[in-house]
Amino acid sequence: MSDTTYLQFDLLIDRGATGYRVRVLNSPAGQASGALTLPPDFAASADWSAPAAARVQGQRLFEAVLADDVGACYRRSLDEARRQGAGLRLRLRLADAPELSAWPWEYLFDPQQARFLCLTPDTPLVRFLELPIPEHRAIVKPPLRLLVVIANPSDTPALNAAQEWAHLAAAVEPLEARGLLQVERLEQATLPALQRRLRQQDVHLLHFIGHGAFDPTTQEGLLIFEDEARQSRLVSGQTVSTLLGGRPPALVFLNACEGAASSSGNAFAGVAQSLVQQGIPAVIAMQTAISDAAAVALSQEFYGALADGYAVDSALVEARKAVFATGNPLEWGVPVLFMRAPDGRLFDVQPLSQAERQQNQIATLLRQAAGAQAGEDWPTAVQKLQTILQLDPNQTEAARCLRDVQKQQEMAAAFASGQEHYNAGRWRQALDYFLRVQDLGGNFRGVFGLLATVKMKIAQSEQPEPIARQPAATDHAFSEKTQLVYGPIIKALMAGRLVPVLGPGVNLCSRPPGVGWQTGQYLPTADELSTHLADTFGYPLTERSNLAKVAQVIAVMRDVGPLYEELRPIFDANYPPTPVHQLLAALPAALRKQGCAYPHQLIITLNYDDVLERTLQAAGEPCDVVTYVAEGDQRGSFLHDPSGETENILIERPNEYLDLPIDQTAARRMLILKLHGAIDRQHDDADSYVITEDHFINFIPRMDIAAIAPAPLLAFLKRSYFLFLGFDLSAWNSRTVLHRVFSPKRGYAWAVEPEPAIISQKFWSRHNVDILDLSLEQFVAGLSERLQNLFNDGGRGTGSRS
User: Fold this and answer.
1) Is the dihedral of CA 275, 277, 280, 283 positive or negative?
2) C-alpha radius of gyration, the chain, whole number
3) Looking at CB atoms within 10 Å, which of 403, 438, 440, 721 has the fewest?
């Protein structure tokens, strides 16, 4: 069905000397005027909640407004519109009588034709604002880009944000499948996040779901966004429109959801008028809260008609009819359309060729498949990818993705079976399934850590019964302490205040006993690297396991250049991630899924490799990297590698540098601080390794954290908790870093170290660090299990200390 062409019926209501006046400013039948005389018992607060009541009240309002000469003008205009094969758009102007905006004009009922005006394509009603702003109508080809903002601050009545998003996504999914619409959710419902997104790419449509408020002092409607701490931020329509300026969306859709206060309708109406007055062509606002079923039907039909090229009011009529057709006799009147576009057309939608339509469909299906894959909805991902291959069997990317998804599906099934046996203590069966997972995809979901635990359990169960001994008095207390410490670690993690600090031992996690360094498979230990360098360069001394000393002699004898050249192929290899890397990379998505306000971490590492960065990239987590420079003109400085950028930034004045994605509250995205330098995969001559004795001598005096840390990073570190993983305190350089960089308070730091020696216990204790007597495999498995149980339980009892 094609869209309707409309003639205009401009109806102005203002306040005269003796009461309200009604004037027809423009119509096919000319002008007319009259008095607005409402029945004595008529009030906006009257009962409109039942269909019969809405019809009665709508008829009374119709007869009061379209009476006498004004009514006759309306009838003649209808006749003329029909003669021309057009509709009649009623453009209601209330700017001079704003108190009448609260009336539910959308329920106007014509008794002569026995129908509601807004339910009929021939007679749409809009609240019109005429402004001295030139109209600009964009020429677009589908898909239209729809940006969804779901604001759910922690200090307002909770919305089910995931459900709201699921409902809207389901409503418009058929439009995406046809290549007409591209839907995206703003990751954070904050004004800075919205500004950044609008700067990246134009948005045609903006859909806001959340709460509204009303300021009685300024008589201004407000939207409630989130701030960086997920607290409420009250935002006026003028502020929003300023942010949207430049190339604003053609339409803003304001939705008061289930759970939002019904008074949000009035607040949203005020915001809607403000947005239109600031130049947004059209704004739709809900007068009251609307049910999920009505919202789904409304969104699907409205955006579909808009993408088909309908005028905005005509599209809204189609959406109202869709709500009515679901057996909902009243909620079709909840949406209010404020508009300044004279003919209601927001875009000139260009038709798509069959090839373009198919290309859009394939792009949409690929996005949907990626989303399903990220959510581990394997059947949906498979179905989307198979649909693509039906459309175009030569789609190599879809074929590759399908193979990957099917492999992931098989791994997930094997992992679930293995975990079921694991939880039941059936270690042999668990081992079989976990080995199958490892064969299919390496360290899927941290299976290396589970394998280590299972093998340990099997070994324990097959050992002969030990001679009974009286347990030491400290055994139970230490075990209980180890178990209880997971709670504070998880609380710090969910509050965004846990800083993992990675030592060289992290790369040994899940490495089988007795297996040596293998390029591309297992990274070398310091001893293995030292021995390799000594053999390669003909190291003349007897002691070959002191890496710093061996590297120093090589640098003196051969210079640093050959030393770095030998190190590069060792670290320029794609080593698989260990369970520690897998856990750290999986945390942001898991925390976001739980609604945590601060899902990102600052991670400090002493390692040269880039396994952590690659693991984060594979998980779809952007990260910034800050690396210490050990050689060259910039020696002693730090380089900032921002996520998504090709060039590094030299941090010349650390205390003045404010471009890191961190403030005193939390990291805004993953941030890795590499204290001992690192390989640079992009530039052969930019590797940096703090490895010789001279390097450490130069490095140590620069490690005054107050001097080297950018101010926001320093403020964050002062209120952080620290988790030391893979540290060997027998190495003097590790002890030096701990001494110079970290000064945690008691109860704010933990170190995972199995069977710590007395000297380690005393050293950690001197620095206020509590020891967890666990292997890294045991710790990762234990923490992963507790997080999974906690998240399955809905995150209850995870409050954080400020």
Assistant:
1) positive
2) 33
3) 403
